[in-house]
Amino acid sequence: MVADILRPIQCLKREKEALLSEFQYVTSENNEIQMENSAMQDQIEKLQKELKENMSRVNLDLNIAPSEPGTPVYVIRVPLISQFISRLDSLKSERLGEFDDRISND
Fold first, then answer.
1. Residue 70, phi-psi category: left (phi > 0), alpha (psi -120 to 50), beta (remainder)
2. Which helix (H) or strand (E) holds 72?
3. 37-92 pLDDT, tens digit each
């Protein structure tokens, strides 16, 4: 009779250990993703700052003729911010998909 009571308790203890182990793994993966996310945010801020600095150095007004005849006009092509953000979102989705795959495979 005591053995019948102990069996479910031992089973629950093993399940608890498995859940704790999985929780630690997920927490570790989450921390890793948070660090990567933070690094990417820092990189985005740095690139945005560089873009602003470059744009402030280049004063382009294509409606104004060059000040002297024969002065070359330069056109600088800057990728659209929306395309940049879209690419970041897709990378983020890919990373989260990889994370989900790793969790479901373990």
1. left
2. none
3. 889 999 988 888 888 777 766 555 555 555 566 666 555 555 566 666 777 777 77
What's this model's pTM, rounded to 2 decimal places?
0.47
What gap in Å lies between CA 83 and CA 81, rounded to an integer?
A: 5
**Residue 74 corresponds to which amino acid?**
Y
Non-local CB neighbours of 103 within 8 Å, separated by 6+ positions: 25, 26, 29
- C-alpha–C-alpha distance, residues 67 and 71, integer Å: 7
- For tokens 């983020």, the residue is 92
What Cα–Cα distance (Å) separates residue 17 from each residue in 11, 20, 23, 28, 100? 10, 5, 10, 16, 22
Question: And the tokens for 60?
Answer: 């382009």
Distance CA 101, CA 25 (A): 13
* pLDDT at residue 75, as a whole number: 58
